[in-house]
Amino acid sequence: MKFIKIWGLQHTATNYLEQILNRNFKDILVLVNQLGWKHGPIVRNIDWSGKNWVQNNPPDVNEMLQIKNDLESIKCYKNEIIQKFNNNEIYNIVVIKDVYDWYNGVKIKRIGSNYNSTKDVINVWNNMCNDYFDYYKVHKSNTIIFSYYKLRNNLHDCMKELIEKFEIKLYDKENFYNLNVHIGNDGKPVNGIPTKIYDYKNKTNNFIDDVAIINNITKFVNRKTYLKYLKISRIKK
Predict the structure, then answer these.
(1) Under the phi-then-psi rule, with left for phi > 0, alpha for psi from -120 to 50, and beta for the rest, what region is 8?
(2) What is the pLDDT of residues 128-141, one digit of tens each?
(3) Which letter does DSSP use for residue 231 in this model?
């Protein structure tokens, strides 16, 4: 069994990635919020109380139930997870998104209500992306960073990279499956069934991906405003 942990800010297709992995790969367990809230900093140590497996500290009533369910879901793997974590054998997938695009998504979805200013929103992006890249510098062997746009527009190459680096296997040796449905906020398909998109061996693409891709047109802040707040020197502008 291989354990794959997903990380990424809100609206970076982490729900979509989770379902793609579960649909296509065998002998893996996808960790979503187990071990750490997927939209938070990458954990360096596991807190088995689960308090950092959710957004709020202290957790609210619903989050306490989520922690209980997440703990139960990996109960039988706990010793194996501890061993693999200590040996850097928990595999990590991080999804990053352009700050301007992410900022617009935050405002559109109204998840930025706790932010007092544009600078606050961008500071979150800065802090999280710096955390991702700091982690990656010392954990390159078990971590992959995907661009949101590559994941959505060139899924085949992303999955090929996963297969080669993490040495994981497809259920179907020749075909890869996408989801032909919109992914809801609960991470579940709204309707529909998976549909074949790739002949993996021959790399032929025979699908239409109707999962919504955010193309934000409304300009909440001009680029000169947000660029002055950016602190990520390792991302090419």
Answers:
(1) left
(2) 988 998 899 899 99
(3) -
Question: In 3-state terms, what secondary structure has residue 1?
Answer: coil
User: In CATH, what number does 2-227 get?
Assistant: 3.40.50
Which residue, 147, 120, 107, 134, is CA-closest to 229?
Answer: 120
Per-residue pLDDT for 97 more than 80? yes
d(CA 31, CA 36): 9
Q: In a 3-state reduction of DSSP, which class is residue 95?
A: strand
pLDDT tier, 109 (very low <50, low <70, confident <90, very high otherwise): low
Note the pLDDT of residue 217: 25
HSE (CB half, 13 Å, CA atoms) of 70? 23
Return d(Cα 89, Cα 156) in angstroms, integer: 24
Asked whether 6 and 12 are in contact (CB, 8 A), the reply is no
Q: Which residue has the tokens 């590559």?
A: 150
216 within 8 A of 105, measured Cβ to Cβ: yes
- Using DSSP's 3-state secondary structure scheme, residue 2 falls into strand
Q: How far apart are the first and last CA of the chain?
A: 39
Tell me which DSSP letter residue 41 carries.
P
127 against 202, higher pLDDT: 127
Domain ranges in the chain are: 2-227
Q: Tens of pLDDT along 36-72?
A: 999 999 999 999 999 999 999 899 999 999 999 999 9
* Residue 136 token pair: 């990656």
Alpha helices in the chain (DSSP H): 14-24, 61-73, 78-86, 99-109, 118-138, 148-153, 155-166, 223-227
| DSSP assigned state of 209 | -
